[in-house]
Amino acid sequence: MKRGLFLSTAAARATRSIAYGSLYPAHTVPHRLTFTTPSHRHSRRHTFALLPTTALSSCPLLQNPNFLTGNRNSPFRGMERYCSGSSINRNKGMVDHLKSYGVIKSKRVAEVMETIDRALFVPSGNPPYVDSPLSIGYNATISAPHMHAMCLQLLQENLQAGMRALDVGSGTGYLTACFALMVGPQGRAVGVEHIPELVSSSIPNIEKSAAGTLLREGSLSVHIGDGRLGWPEFAPYDAIHVGAAAPEIPQPLIDQLKPGGRMVIPVGNIFQDLKVVDKDLDGSISVRDETSVRYVPLTNRDDQLRGS
């Protein structure tokens, strides 16, 4: 199939658009944007709903120039000029925004995202509540709020009080703090990050948040290490989240997943899928694709710092 971008018309109706991790229900739309991209085996077709121009300023799908979890080089990067950005200026407003688009579906996820203020984990000078990934230095990012919400939704049954959670690529510490609040003081939340400077800066972020007490009491911890190897000290884990795309699911993470546990991990190189990995009580593994996403690669420290 020929590579390229082309427009096709479709009947105007409310629909749900899936675009690089976005699961927002679109408004009534008169057109769709369709593009095809080749792979070494077959071409893949992607279709996105296009909103009327007057609706673009309130469209979360287009507010993120990287569509939406994307941390690099989306083919739609130029579309950001059509969006005026978000007027959301408080954490609860961000959560309400995600609830209104059906990204946050449970009261529990809404409560933890309201309690852990994203502004404490975003580098100074950046708009903390806009639904977009943001650079945190060292060729790393903090994911868009909708992706954090999606992962919390997928993992919430494995983030009950007293359970154990591992956050691979913990970055600024935001999602690790959310995990800690959900599993509580009787549980254990562990962040692993291979950039020492990010680990160092994440500690005061967490200390200032509602999870600060859990950090001081020891049920939340952040460690310098290669996240591809997990963190065996506190294994097995009921929930594992991976915040960067692996070419394949690392075996140590599967090994450290508790029977009955769940892992959420982006997998792929150019084309990536957010995969949900469940380990049954008998130890058997099942894997399903949740949606297409775009993350920075899960790699070693030197390659990350080189941006390769």
From TrEMBL:
Q: Which GO terms describe its biological process?
A: methylation; protein repair
Keyword Ribosomal protein attached? no
The reply to whether ATP-binding figures as a keyword in the UniProt entry is no
| Reaction equations catalysed | [protein]-L-isoaspartate + S-adenosyl-L-methionine = [protein]-L-isoaspartate alpha-methyl ester + S-adenosyl-L-homocysteine
Keyword annotations for this protein, in alphabetical order, are: Methyltransferase, S-adenosyl-L-methionine, Transferase
Q: Which domain of life is it from?
A: Eukaryota
Which cellular component, as a GO term, is one annotated location? Answer: cytoplasm
CDD domains for this protein? AdoMet_MTases
Under InterPro entries, the record lists:
PCMT, SAM-dependent_MTases_sf
In Swiss-Prot or TrEMBL terms, this protein is called Protein-L-isoaspartate O-methyltransferase
State the species of origin.
Pyrus ussuriensis x Pyrus communis
